[in-house]
Amino acid sequence: MAVAETTITTTRRSIFQSSAAQKLLAFAALIVIFLVFTFLSPYFATPENIVGILLATAVNGVLALGVTFIIITAGIDLSVGTVMTLSAVMTGLAITIYGLPVPVGIVVGILTGTIAGLINGLVISRMRIPPFIATLGMMMIARGLALVLSTLETGTVKPIYFNDTPEFRLLTMSSVLDPIIKPMAPNFSVPNAVFIMFGAALVAAFILGKTVLGRYTVAMGSNEEATRLSGVNVANWKTAVYALGGIFSGLAGVMIASRLNSAQPALGVGYELDAIAAVVIGGTSLSGGEGTILGTIIGAFIISTLTNGLRIMNVPQEWQFVVTGLIVILAVYLDILRRRRS
User: Fold this and answer.
1) 116: closest CA among 150, 147, 79?
2) Can you give the pLDDT at residue 16?
3) Structure pTM?
4) Burial, 306: exposed, middle or buried (Cβ in 10 Å; 0-12, 13-18, 19+)?
5) How large is the average pLDDT for residues 75-82?
6) The dihedral sign for the CA sequence 84, 89, 93, 96
7) I want to staple 138 with a disulfide (CB 3.0 to 4.6 A). Which of 66, 79, 207, 236 is the partner?
8) Per-residue pLDDT reduced to its tens digit, 171-224
9) Helix (H, G, I), strand (E, B) or coil at 143
C-alpha cells in the first residue's frame, strides 16, 4: 500500500504541473470563442442568449462529470446518453403512472442510472470485456428499454408528460435567485439547472481530489497493473467509478426530463459524444491518469458556446458537427504532443 501511495503522490504532482496549463489554455479558448461570436453577431452576448448557453451546458456538463472519472481510468462510456434517457423515462413512469411523489421519482431516476453504471463496471472489471464493447451494449440495452417502457401507458412509443406535476418542471426551470435578481433585471433569470450543474461539479471535484476513490481513479489510469500489485482491489474500485458515472447520468436524466417537462424515449443518442468531447477538450487525457473537473466544465461551456454561436450565425447543423469534430481531434492531438514532450 505504501508503494501505491507513493505512485499516486508522484502521479498527482505531474498532473498538477500539466493540468494547470491545460485548463488555462481551455479557458483562453472559451474567451476567444465568446469574443469572436460577440463581434460577429449583436444577438450573441445578450442576457437571454447567455442564459440559453448556461442552460444548454447544464445537462451535458453533468453527463461529462461522470465521464471524466471513467476516462481518467483510461476507460470509456458510450452509454451515458441513452442511460440518461432511460433514467428520464423511469422518472416519468414513477411520477405520472405510479403516482409516486416527485422526490421519490427523482430518486428512482438517479437509481436507474446508478444500476446501469454498476452493471457496466461489473461487466468490464469482472468479465474483462473492453469498456468500448461493454458500454456500447449498454447503450443499445438502455435505448431499447426506454422505448419499451414508454409504451406502458398508451401502448405506443410516446413521450411521458409531467403536466399534472408542475413542481417537477420548477426543479430546474425556476430560479432560487429570482428574488434577488428580478428587482434589478426583470427579464433576466438563471435557472436552477445551472446551479445543480455547479453543485454536482463541486461534489465531483471533492471526490476526485479528496477521497480514496479519486486517488485510486488517477492511479488506475496512470498504471493499472502497478496499482493492482500494490494491493489495491482494482476490480472493485473500477466498478465504483462506473457506478459513479451512472449516478451523474441518472441526475442528468432527471434534469432533462424536468427541463423538457417530459421524458422523451427517443432522446439521448449523441449526448455521449458531446460529453466525451467536453471532457477531452477540458484536458482529460484519453490515455488515462489525468483530468480535472474544472477543465471538464470549461470544455462543456466551449461545446455549448460554439454550438450556440454557430446556430446564431445560421451555420447548418451538419457543419456544426464538423467543427466540433475537428476541435476534438485537435484537443486529442495536443494531448499527444504534450505527453511526448513530458
Assistant:
1) 79
2) 45
3) 0.90
4) buried
5) 95
6) positive
7) 79
8) 999 888 877 777 777 677 889 999 999 999 999 999 999 999 999 999 999 999
9) helix
